[in-house]
Automatic annotation (TrEMBL):
The modification N6-(pyridoxal phosphate)lysine is found at K112. It catalyses: O-phospho-L-homoserine + H2O = L-threonine + phosphate. It comes from Paenibacillus herberti. InterPro entries: Ser/Thr_deHydtase_PyrdxlP-BS, Thr_synth_N, Thr_synth_N_sf, Thr_synthase-like, Threonine_Synthase, TrpB-like_PALP, TrpB-like_PALP_sf. PANTHER family: THREONINE SYNTHASE FAMILY MEMBER, THREONINE SYNTHASE-LIKE 2. Signal peptide: none annotated. This is Threonine synthase.
Length: 463
């Protein structure tokens, strides 16, 4: 399998080189040169596979023979041996027509573990096999940072620096990152928003000379391996329902801010997974919902919400969807992204909007609706939703009439967002892995949200 850039000036890149490149050297995002197809017969053959077995089959489609199958199998097994549920991403019924897929059974209690445990092991494998220097740099709105750090902490040949917005993540998210005292980990709390951190990371990677000199590697979802790993659980959810006799097309409701998780669902659909609708759930930072309804992609005023991991205005994976929306025409994508850089907005014509609306439904969940959803499901179903999952469930409930059987993605354990849970008068027990964080010292540096400040600190860390 080869990978190409959405902007057309990078092509013929192998899988390992793609994960090392992260952001394409022309400033675009890497996508597979062709999307592998999965037939109905293959889906039937996969129905009894474990999560690990399914992941191996799907990864093989995108990796080919670059990693020998038995070595890839070991990577997969190592990555998911850390999960607390035998199914890795189990599906639970909330009520008739709505199930929830729990993606929070990894070591940091967030869906990011599904991809980042694999990517961390993959980076370690590449470092051992090739002698590559792995200097990981990433920005987080809360969950990516902890998952990425957990995936590579203490591993030889790898260093990682994570930027998070100071005071704009939950306390548990902050502690999961900053209580790590391994020498290969650097936490920087920036004086700004996640969008500031994401912009800095993308601009540092766009400086190809700096990127190559300091061997920068991406851990954010600009890295194609993140997306590929996330497609697996869409297939697994469908196959779990198929085992129950629900083999018809399934809709997925996905809380999203950076468009990575729902893009993985879109990719799964293009591979042949029977997906009815992809429901895009945002919070009050609703740039993506506005795009689905109006065809205008334009950041608005940043709003802090009860679902902070979705407090994102500029979705870094949006460019990948534009690539497919415009028929894989890299020149059109380049023109649109240049327009966005100059004017801060993208407007698509009506015929393209019709395609978008055939791919996605969308709902922007307000703060009170989020809290009301948590309270309702706790009272009526005895199930505690974290605020991000609540956004996905609220969107599914709002759009259920057009969606049929729906799986809402549960992206985090509620204990990670106790500040929001307490607002509806619910007290919850903390898993021991989380409660123990409050007794540990923190290791973090404050930094201005500027390219110059971050670059200077990285040079000192990596040299």
């Amino acid at each position: 399998m080869e990978y190409i850039s959405t902007r057309g000036k990078v092509s013929g890149v192998g899988f390992i080189d793609a994960i090392l490149m992260g952001l394409a050297d022309d400033g675009g995002l890497l996508v597979p040169a062709r999307i592998p197809q999965v037939s109905a017969d293959t889906l039937k053959q996969w129905q009894e596979l474990s999560y690990q077995e399914l992941a191996l089959e799907i990864f093989t489609l995108y990796i080919g023979e670059e990693i020998p199958r038995e070595e890839l199998r070991q990577l997969v097994d190592d990555s998911y041996s850390t999960f607390r549920d035998a199914d890795v991403t189990p599906v639970r019924k909330l009520h008739e027509g709505l199930d929830v897929m729990e993606l929070f059974h990894g070591p940091t209690f967030a869906f990011k573990d599904v991809a980042l445990q694999f990517l961390g092991n993959l980076y370690s494998y590449v470092a051992r096999k090739t002698g590559s220097t792995i200097h990981i740099v990433g920005a987080t709105s809360g969950d990516t940072g902890a998952s990425a750090i957990e995936g590579v902490r203490g591993k030889e040949g790898i260093r990682i620096c994570i930027l998070h917005p100071h005071g704009k993540v939950s306390k548990v998210q902050e502690l999961q990152m900053t209580t790590v005292d391994d020498a290969n980990v650097l936490n920087l709390a920036i004086d700004g928003t996640f969008d500031d951190g994401q912009r800095i990371i993308k601009e540092l990677f766009a400086d190809v000379q700096f990127k190559h000199r300091y061997h920068l590697r991406a851990i954010n979802s600009i890295n194609i391996a993140r997306i590929l790993a996330q497609t697996v659980y869409y297939f697994y959810a469908y196959l779990q329902l198929a085992r129950r006799g629900q083999a018809a097309a399934v809709s997925f409701s996905v809380p999203t801010g950076n468009f990575g998780d729902i893009f993985a669902g879109y990719l799964a659909k293009r591979m042949g997974l029977p997906v009815n609708r992809l429901i895009l759930a945002t919070n009050e930072n609703n740039i993506l919902a506005h795009f689905v309804s109006e065809g205008v992609y334009q950041p608005g005023e940043f709003r802090g919400t009860y679902s902070p991991s979705m407090d994102i205005q500029v979705a870094s994976n949006f460019e990948r969807y534009l690539f497919y929306l415009y028929g894989e025409d890299a020149s059109s994508v380049t023109e649109l992204m240049e327009q966005f850089k100059q004017n801060g907005t993208i407007t698509i014509p009506q015929e393209k909007l019709a395609v978008v609306q055939s791919d996605f439904s969308a709902h922007a969940v307000l703060n009170q609706e989020c809290l009301d959803t948590i309270a309702h499901y706790h009272k009526e179903n005895g199930y505690l939703l974290d605020p991000h999952t609540a956004c996905g469930v609220a969107a599914a409930d709002r759009l259920a009439s057009e969606s049929g059987a729906t799986v809402a993605l549960s992206t985090a354990h509620p204990a990670k967002f106790d500040e929001s849970i307490r607002l509806v008068g619910i007290e919850q027990p903390f898993p021991s892995q989380i409660s123990g964080l409050f007794e540990q010292s923190q290791h973090v540096e404050l930094s201005p949200a500027s390219n110059e400040a971050i670059a200077a600190r990285l040079v000192k860390f990596f040299e």
